[in-house]
């Protein structure tokens, strides 16, 4: 039996070093015991045996390392052994990782998915409270993750709240930011975290200002924000009140929230874009090359929303650069709109396609995928608060209005988006590429819509 001691539950580097040495010496998985921290010291006579040595180095696919780095944060005690078993298999059978039906690979992928989801929940549901320490203001939060994710999740908060001093306390580990560097310390108990103070009021105001009555679907809310997180979130106490005043609130929403767009907007947008890279909210994340997030200045008064990235966008990681994007650019130019001053994004951030031979053929995003991806458009809109938004086609319109609509019934008049912002609807540029009859007329109508938007922008921005 060989015992490998890891420094912490999420010690990927320790696992990697141990696994490499074990694989080099061809030690079978059942002969290895993985120990975390000081645990089990006596069992093995106090002194750890040196790692086996002498095996030849070997390369593993990047996808395996990504999987291992994430799955290692899972709370399942078997994860180290399972990953080691997979490593041995990859070594003897290159390409083994591609067999997604394999139970071992599926189990590890499910673990990685649970970890990503836990990180996502932590990013979304941590709530800071302000405390004074040594004359300085520090923001402290309590959170109870399901997996060992604190180290993986913390850089997001460092980017998003770079100018604050903050600490996040969890039962296993605490994370601290001093404005320059992240540090990790021992776990804490809920009693160590402050419970209710002025920052709660700030959060409540913030939440109230982004609250959207149209979004109030209790089932969806519980799914997105499981009840176990509610107790740590001051704004959940507000929900009843908010529902009662919902109608009146709607009218004020755009004005009030626009005031939020300040110097932190860029940092907030960068943090959200970063988080979206690891999005697993719907199965599409497994199809495309990458998340294609929106692009453009965060202070842009004009937002364009398309359907989803196409083949070229998926490869480049940028929206609207393929054939539809080129037509869009031409029409914008003719309408006198400078694309570099607008924010361009999509309702769905992953490419959905069917393979035909070597080609990847676009396939339409369904209602579930549009709903799952709505989270990101909400984040983008909360940060940017554009004065005007243009929905390009039916999928974008569905995302912005929260229901299926027909373009012809809404075109040419201002509409209200789900968050109260002003939205205009027109066709998608790829419709102009496809249409056979009256191609020129349809294109001219599209340019006319854009001109109307440019004129309206002068009035409202
Ligand atoms: N079509 C879209 O809707 N978005 C893109 O980014 C490209 C094509």
Tally of separate helices: 18
Count of domains: 4
Radius of gyration: 25 Å
Main sheet overview:
5 strands, mixed
- Uncertain segments are 246-263
CATH topology of the largest domain: Uracil-DNA Glycosylase, subunit E
- Content-based structural category: alpha/beta
The CATH class name of the largest domain reads Alpha Beta
Supply the CATH superfamily name of the largest domain: Uracil-DNA glycosylase-like domain
Side-by-side strand order of the widest sheet: 3-4-5-6-7
Number of strands: 14
- The CATH architecture of the largest domain can be given as 3-Layer(aba) Sandwich
Percent helix range: 40-55%
What does this structure look like?
The chain has 461 residues and is an alpha/beta fold. Helix content is 44%, strand content 14%. The protein has helices at 12-24, 62-71, 79-92, 103-125, 150-160, 198-210, 218-224, 227-230, 239-244, 246-258, 264-277, 311-316, 323-335, 367-384, 394-401, 407-410, 429-434, 439-460; strands at residues 2-6, 32-36, 128-133, 136-142, 166-169, 173-177, 182-186, 302-306, 343-346, 353-356, 359-362, 388-392, 415-416, 422-426. The strands form four sheets. It has a five-stranded mixed β-sheet with strand order 3-4-5-6-7. It has a five-stranded mixed β-sheet with strand order 9-8-12-14-13, with helices on both faces. A two-stranded parallel ribbon has the order 1-2. α5 (150-160) runs antiparallel to α11 and α11 (264-277) runs antiparallel to α14. It is globular. Residues 306-310, 313, 319-320, 322, 324-325, 346, 430 line the site of uracil. Uracil is lined by residues 306-310, 313, 319-320, 322, 324-325, 346, 430.
